[in-house]
Amino acid sequence: MTVFELANVACRYPGSADLALRPVDLTIDAGQFWALCGPNGSGKSTLLRCLTAQLTPVSGTVSFAGKPLAEWTAQARAQQLAVVRQTNQAKPALTVREVVALGRTPFRHFWQATTSADREVVAAALRQCDLQALADRPFSALSGGQQQRVWLALALAQTPSVIILDEPTTFLDIHYQLDLLKRLKALTQRRVTVIAVLHDLNQVLQFADTVALLAAGTLLATGTPEDVLTAKRVGQLFQVEASRVQDRAGQSALIFH
Ligand SMILES: Nc1ncnc2c1ncn2[C@@H]1O[C@H](COP(=O)(O)OP(=O)(O)OP(=O)(O)O)[C@@H](O)[C@H]1O
């Protein structure tokens, strides 16, 4: 099943003469782990903003689950699509549990009380992100990495079919980076589609099913990380020397010089 279909999608920011994203055609199928990669300023976040309806393309159409994204109401969209942004902010007075419970908002009217089913979903999301011990702490008293896990838990509480993340490993130590990537990979086994901007190309090689490589607003290549992230292409694109090695289990990795 196709989740996103982009046809000739181009984006420009208000007041800017240049396209931040040149015309892109892209099909994203359900249950895939997509990584968006490329140098700083290459258009990764811009592409994500098109997928989350934060930015309206100047040309082309973005279809989500078979319907133009523009025809989805914000509530219907939020029932299917969870977004973890770099710049999320919560009201300082909220506890971790209350922040995560915001993930249930798309499923009820504002006057309706939370149900026991809602509370169970929130508890499961807290558990999945290893946050039970912090659940009743004020959100503002958490470290950057802990806050990042709260945003993931909020997204999981939306029980989404698609989860979109902009640099989700920022602020996380290596333990929680791998933990997060493994969790995202596990979600794809349950047919959840994961689309994430990732800078660590070795993590992309290890976890992503498909990578979209961008450069200066142009989609350079899409395909498996093995095929797309060759030492030559990566070296040229990021202007570094790179070589590719394999460990004993056959896992590819890039080494930078
Ligand atoms: N709000 C904005 N207004 C105007 N131009 C913007 C805006 N946001 C991004 N741009 C421009 O659009 C282009 C693509 O930026 P984008 O944020 O998508 O890159 P990115 O690949 O996500 O970069 P990074 O890895 O640094 O986060 C850049 O040239 C950037 O300067």
UniProtKB/TrEMBL annotation:
Keywords: ATP-binding, Nucleotide-binding
Presence of keyword Magnesium: no
GO molecular function terms attached to this record: ATP binding
Lineage: superkingdom: Bacteria
Coiled-coil annotated spans: none
UniProt-listed InterPro entries: AAA+_ATPase (IPR003593), ABC_transporter-like_ATP-bd (IPR003439), ABC_transporter-like_CS (IPR017871), P-loop_NTPase (IPR027417)
Positions of the ABC transporter domain: 4-241
Pfam families according to UniProt: ABC_tran (PF00005)
SUPFAM superfamilies in alphabetical order: P-loop containing nucleoside triphosphate hydrolases (SSF52540)
Protein name per the record: ABC transporter ATP-binding protein
